[in-house]
Design brief:
- By secondary structure, this protein is α+β, with helices and mostly antiparallel strands.
- The protein has helices spanning about 15-30, 55-65; strands at about 5-10, 40-45.
- The chain has one domain: Ribosomal Protein S5, domain 2, CATH 3.30.230.10.
- A two-stranded parallel ribbon has the order 1-2.
Length: about 70
């Protein structure tokens, strides 16, 4: 099984915004899970300069990851 870790910097203001980013990343990873090898551990690190323009942007970024 695959595991993911999500690290979001506290300087990204607003717990609601941070939690929304986490939900979008989890869902994007769930949709692309079959492209990754079994037993993969993946860590997503979201830094303060991140801006959430659209959920589609995050989904496309997760889809571009190399397995």
């Amino acid at each position: 099984f695959n595991r993911i870790g999500i690290s979001i910097h506290r300087k990204l203001k607003g717990a609601v915004k941070r939690n929304r980013i986490k939900r979008i990343i989890r869902e994007s990873f769930r949709l692309e899970r079959s492209t990754y090898p079994d037993c993969a551990d993946i860590i997503f690190a979201v830094r303060p300069g991140f801006s959430l323009n659209s959920p589609a942007e995050i989904t496309s970024s997760v889809a571009k990851l190399e397995p």
